[in-house]
Amino acid sequence: MTDPARSSPEVEAYRAADLLRHDLGKAIRLSAPDTIEPDTEALRARLRADVLETRRSPSGSCGAAKLFELWHRDASALFPERTELGGRVAAITGIFGEVAALSAKLDRLDRLELERLDGLTKDIARECRALAEMARPKASKA
């Protein structure tokens, strides 16, 4: 019997993926309504909060791209390239390239670009959920 206090690489990968799902995948859409805001400035304000101020605390805020960068620095070794999980992390990384580019000029984006950024936040939320589900240890799936 294995010692439950010791974590396997599979369990560590799941913990890291679930942390990403919660801290980023959920938070990047935290204040998103069921349907996109008809008012462009309301959409911009919501995206500013969800993308640029994803984690808020009394000491300040941290944007989604930075949160992902920090997570990736600490957890990427758990998701080797050329594996299904590594491919999912690569997909999330690719999405963040576009998110970072758009969010850097958030105040100057037109309506179509804001809608594109909103769509990317949906993609990130979906991909983070999928990564956590794929990483779930086999014994606990069912």
Protein architecture, described:
This protein is mainly alpha-helical. It has a domain of 96 residues. It contains 5 helices and 2 strands; from the N terminus they run H-H-E-E-H-H-H. It has a two-stranded antiparallel sheet with strand order 1-2. Strand 1 and strand 2 form a beta hairpin. The longest helix is centred in the last third of the chain and has 25 residues. The mean pLDDT is 92.
Entry summary:
This protein is mainly alpha-helical and 142 residues long.
Look at the helices and sheets and give the structural class: mainly alpha
Tell me the major beta sheet: 2 strands, antiparallel
Beta content comes to under 5%
Q: What is the CA-based Rg, rounded? A: 16 Å
Name the helix and strand elements from N-terminus to C-terminus, one letter apiece. Answer: HHEEHHH
> Which runs of at least 5 residues are low in confidence (pLDDT < 50)?
none
Global mean pLDDT: 92
- The count of helical stretches stands at 5
Oligomer: single chain
Shape: elongated
Strands, total number? 2
**Neighbour order of strands in the largest sheet:** 1-2
Helix content: 55-70%
Distance between the termini: 22 Å
